[in-house]
TrEMBL record:
Its EC number is 3.4.24.-. Residues 515-525 have a biased composition (Basic and acidic residues). Keywords: Hydrolase, Metal-binding, Metalloprotease, Protease, Signal, Zinc. Residues 104-270 form the Peptidase M48 domain. Coiled coil: none annotated. Residues 1-26 form the signal peptide. The keyword Zinc applies. It holds the Pfam family Peptidase_M48. One of its GO terms (molecular function) is metallopeptidase activity. Its cofactor is Zn(2+). CDD domains: M48C_bepA_like. This is M48 family metalloprotease.
Amino acid sequence: MNAPQFPRRLVAVAAALLIAAPVAIPAPQPLAPAHVPNLPSLGDTSREALSPVTERKLGEEIMRDIRFDRDYLDDPPIIEYLNALGNNLVAARPGARGEANYDYFFFCVRDPMLNAFALPGGFIGVHSGLLLAAQTESELASVLSHEIGHVAQRHIARQLGEQKTDALIPLAAMVLAALAAKSNPDAAMGVMMGGQGLAIQRQLNFGRDAEREADRIGFQIMGAAGYETNGMVAFFQRLQVATRNYSDIVPAYLQSHPLTTERIADIQARIREQPYRQRVDALDFFLVRARARVLQDTSSKGLAETEEFLRNQLQQPSRHQIASAQYGMAILALKRHDYAGAQSWLDKAAATVDRPPAPGAFSSPLPKGVADSVLAYTSLEIKVDQVNKPEVIAQAIREGEVAHAKFPLSRGIVWQYADALIKGGKAEQAERFLRDQLQMYRSEPELQDLLAQAYSKLGKLALQHIALAESYALLGGTQAALDQLVLARKAPDASFYEHAVIDAREREWQAKRREAMGEKGKDKGTGFAVSGSVKAGPAQEMQEPVDPSCRGMLANSPRCADGRVGMPQATPWGQQRR
C-alpha cells in the first residue's frame, strides 16, 4: 500500500520545489566554515509586488491549511530535528531572515516523492521520501540550504513582480495582432500566440534562473555551516536517477528547473576551489530517518514492509545503522501497541549508542546531535500511551520531570510530561506547569489543548472553554474560537474576571474575522493561484466535520473528543464521549 499523497496546496508562484535529502544536525564540534564567495541579495526590487510582512502573513495562512492536512507529519522529534538543522544553516547566512526577521520553520509531509519546497515568509517543507532517500546529513543540508536560498533571495515576491511585467506582453501582442489583421488574418493569429508564448517562456526562464541562484546560495550556506559541499552533487545525482524519464521527454527550454547535469557541473566547478572536508554524520540523523520510515505508512502492509527493511538493517556492521534500526523497531512496536516490545527495543538502541568500541579498535566519539532528546521523548511516549496502568504513568511523571530538566527546550518532552501529569491525576500540578510554559510559548495550541484537559479534570468549565478558544484562534479557526467563548460565558463557574477576558477576546477575534472575510472578498477571483482548487487566501474557518489535527497524543483532547471541531455542549472532560 502506497503512502498517502500530500495534496499540492502550494502557491504556484512559490513553486520553489526542489528535490531534497535526509536531515542531520551538526556534530558537537563543527568543522571550520569553508571559504565561499558572497552573492548579492536581489530581493529589494520585489518590495512593490509583495512586502516582507505581507509575504510572511501569506505563508502563515498557507501553513494553517497544511497543519490540518492528514499528511502533515506532526511529530515532535522530526520537527525539532529539522528545525535544529535548518536554523543552524540559517545562522550561517547573514541576512537570511530579511528585514522582517523571519523565524524559519521546517516541517515534514508524508509523500514518497524526492522533493522539498519553500513557502512565502520562511516556511520550508520536506517530503518524507526525500528524508528517507538522503544518505548523509550533508545531502539533506544541501536541500535545506537551497530552499533557504529561495527565501533569502525572495524569489516568490520577485516572480510576482515579473508576472506583472509579463502580463503586458500578451496585451501588446493583441494590439499588434489587431493591426496585422487588416492585411493578413493568419499573421494576426501568429502574433497573438507568439506573445502568449513569450510570456510563458519568460516565466520558465525566471524559474530556471531562480533555481541556479538558489543552488549557489545553498552552496555558500552549507559550506559556511561546516557541511560537505559535495553532498549537493551526491543529491543531484540521486535526483537525476529519480527524474530521468521526465528529463528525457521534456525539452530543456520547457522545464522549470535547469537540467540536473548542468547543476552538477556548476557545483562541481565550485567544489574544485574548496579544500576537501569530511564530516561524521550525527546519530540523530539516522534515528529521525527510522522514525519517519515507520510513520510514513502505518497500514498493516506498510508496517510489515518497514519491519522487513529494519530487520535487514540490523545486519549492517555500522553502529549508526544498528542503533537506528533498533530504534525503528521500537516505534514499530509502539504503533502495534506492543509496549513491552517497544521498551525492549528502545533499551537495546540506547545500549548500542552507549556501547564502547571494541578493544584495540580505532573509533572516534559518536556524534549524537539531539539523539538523547529523541530517545527521552520516545521513552515517555511509550509510557504515557499506557493510560490504564497507573504505575506506568507514575513512572512517566518521574521520568518526564528529569527529561524536562535535562532538555528544557524540547517541546515534545514538555507536552508528554504535561500529558502524564493529567493522566496521573495531578491536574493542579499540570495547570501550574502549563501556565508557566504559556508565559514563554504563547503561540503553541498544544499547550492550550493540554491546559483545557487539566481544567476539565478540575471542573473549571469556563477556563476549559477559554483555553480551547485560544487553541482554535492559534490554529486559524476564529469562528470556532468565538463559539467556545459563548460556551465559556454560559458556564456556571464563570467569574467576573473570566467574563472580562471573554469580552476582550471576543472583540479582538470578531474584528479579526471581519478583516479576514473582507480580504477574502477582495481576493475572490484574483487570489494567488495554487495547484488544484485551493487558494492561498486567508485560512478557511473551521467547520463541523472531523478535525484532521486530532491525532497523536492530543487525539483525546476536549476539542477532539466527539470527532468534531467544536464542542457540542459544556460538559466536563470526564463526561465527554470518547
